[in-house]
Design brief:
binds threonylcarbamoyladenylate; 5-stranded parallel β-sheet; 341 residues; alpha/beta; 11-stranded mixed β-sheet; 20% strand; binds magnesium ion
Length: 341
């Protein structure tokens, strides 16, 4: 495959993208979380193309995107009442449900698991595309394997041009971190990957949920290999500062590394950006509050990589609400974590 088209998401281009999907092609499109790389989930060859384009190991299953709950019947074997309750409250939205798989879904989509991951994305362009194609669309994040997820069409172009058919440009994605992956076949339901919907939002609807800690997930060998270490990572070495004195520790480390002649990038909230700049850092501003940090964190890692920094520093933002998803991604992007209690 040689030519990748990068097109604005006009109604006409959306129709064209839908035809491409129906013909077995690979189309990147915006969702409310990150850009996805879509293919017809029922077409094994098309799905194989996703793995090839991303360089993704076949052991890492994909999320199937739908435009309405009526499509669940085509990809699942059974839908427990709890899933319907969640769908009613959170779909369309950044919640992926793990459900028993229908035999109609090729094993490649689910990496041979008996379950399938599904969600309805909350983005007008994604929904328009899914409706026009009227297919279940398998779509992982539209990045090369191991890189951070793309939050703009330019990120997708950077990683995948020449490897896919089409990229629909719908501007930056509004949430910026991936969906929450919730296994509703477990009791109580288990969060396999924290994301756009916080546990605090799920519990009033379905009661207690389990949150797999990273170590626990890795040790238990749970079937969600997207949770591998060293995932969602920038190319530069990255150091994450956690604990009460994280900010002071980051600044001290920045001064020390700058003095040693290293080019240091900092992912900083507005309040600390000036100080980091004065200390010689290349600064990417994350904004002031958690939604802004989530929206900008991946773009920041990519931008700092583009500036050719030797090292990226960031502090932790706690684990409340969206903080948990940000904490999870930063933990996995980091080469080193320095705790200052
Ligand atoms: O927000 C999102 O979820 C984005 C947009 C494009 O929808 N998609 C996304 O896909 O992040 P991906 O492939 O990068 O991550 C899918 C995650 C992986 O951690 C994978 O292991 C997990 O979902 N997953 C998929 N199917 C699964 C299954 N049957 N059981 C357990 N985990 C599953
Ligand atoms: Mg991904």
């Amino acid at each position: 495959m040689a030519v990748t088209e990068l097109l604005p998401a006009t109604p006409e281009n959306i129709r064209r993208a839908a035809e491409m999907l129906r013909a077995g092609g690979l189309v990147a499109f915006p969702t409310e979380t990150v850009y996805g790389l879509g293919a017809n989930a029922l077409d094994e060859n098309a799905v194989a193309g996703i793995f090839a384009a991303k360089g993704r190991p076949a052991a890492d299953p994909l999320i199937v995107h739908l435009h309405g709950v009526a499509q669940l019947a085509g990809v699942t074997r059974a839908v427990p009442p709890i899933a319907l309750r969640l769908a009613e409250v959170f779909w369309p939205g950044p919640l992926t449900l793990i459900l028993p798989k229908s035999p109609a879904v090729p094993a490649l989509v689910t990496s041979g698991l008996e379950t399938v991951a599904v969600r309805i994305p909350d983005h007008p362009l994604a929904l328009a595309l899914l409706e026009a194609a009227d297919l279940p669309v398998a779509a992982p994040s539209a990045n090369r394997f191991g890189r951070t997820s793309p939050t703009t069409a330019q990120h997708v172009w950077h990683d995948l041009h020449g490897r896919i058919d089409l990229i629909l440009d719908g501007g930056p994605t509004p949430i910026g971190v991936e969906s929450t992956v919730l296994d509703v076949t477990a009791s109580p339901p288990r969060i396999l990957r924290p994301g756009g919907i916080a546990p605090e939002m799920l519990e009033p609807v379905i009661g207690p949920v389990q949150v797999s800690g990273q170590t626990e997930r890795l040790q238990a060998g749970l079937p969600s290999p997207g949770l591998l270490e060293k995932h969602y990572a920038p190319q530069a070495e990255m150091v994450l500062f956690t604990g009460r004195k994280a900010r002071q520790a980051l600044m001290a480390y920045l001064r020390e590394q700058s003095a040693a002649g290293r080019k240091v990038g900092v992912l900083a909230v507005d309040q600390e950006a000036e100080e980091a700049q004065r200390a010689g850092a290349v600064v990417y501003r994350l904004g002031g509050a958690l939604p802004s940090v989530a929206r900008r964190i991946y773009a920041g890692m990519r931008w700092l990589d583009g500036q050719g920094v030797d090292l990226i520093l960031c502090r932790d933002f706690g684990q409340e609400g969206l903080g948990l998803a940000i904490h999870d991604r930063l933990t996995r992007a980091a080469t080193r974590i320095l705790e200052s209690p």
